[in-house]
Specification:
The chain is mainly beta. The protein contains one helix and nine strands, in the order αβββββββββ. It has a nine-stranded antiparallel β-sheet with strand order 1-2-3-4-5-6-7-8-9, with no helix packed on it. It is elongated. The protein starts with a helix and ends with a strand.
């Protein structure tokens, strides 16, 4: 009886060490590229609840942004933001705010592509010239102070609502070019 329990103890110990070795081998092995994992397709860092600003030489704030989450992809030179809010202020120009579910920033921010529930507000809440625009996709070009889309867009100003397909807005001049199928409703 004594020999049998002695044998069972070593058998259980041997099986336990084998299982531990197998588990440690799996845990410590680096990810295999055979599984289709391309490390340049994965984000190299993720930041949550961030804000940033850009200041000109006269210390006037030009651009501020807030985002719930940021993903940076090294291999694609791409930054993706979730739940983003951009604010552009310039002395003598109306306040320019942009909200979107997602934004993709290419390069050093020369091109920003906004997707999902995109809302643009030009002017202050109490300003009679306040313009609100809504679309699904928007191309923001910060250095040219321009926004573009070729998707459906709805523009509201005071009691007038305009529906169109495609838009180009120059924030510097305040000019809005509607590209096609323009319908205006005065309420």
């Amino acid at each position: 009886m004594f020999r049998r329990s002695y044998f069972n103890f070593y058998l259980i110990l041997f099986i336990g060490l084998g299982a531990l070795t197998f588990w440690l081998d799996k845990v410590t092995k680096p990810l295999s590229t055979e599984t289709g994992t391309d490390f340049f397709q994965l984000p190299d860092y993720i930041i949550e609840d961030l804000s940033g600003l850009r200041i000109d030489h006269d210390n006037a704030v030009h651009r501020v942004f807030h985002a719930k989450k940021m993903f940076h992809y090294l291999g694609q030179d791409l930054t993706r933001l979730d739940q983003v809010h951009f604010i552009n202020t310039k002395p003598g120009k109306p306040l320019f705010r942009v909200f979107a579910d997602q934004a993709e920033i290419h390069g050093n921010g020369e091109n920003i592509f906004l997707n999902g529930n995109v809302t643009v507000i030009r002017g202050d809440e109490d300003n009679k010239g306040k313009i609100t625009m809504k679309t699904d996709m928007l191309h923001l070009i910060p250095d040219e102070d321009m926004v573009k889309t070729d998707k459906n867009v709805t523009i509201s100003r005071m009691n007038t609502t305009v529906h169109a397909i495609g838009l180009q807005l120059d924030n510097e001049t305040g000019m809005i070019d509607l590209l096609s199928r323009v319908r205006a409703i005065d309420q």
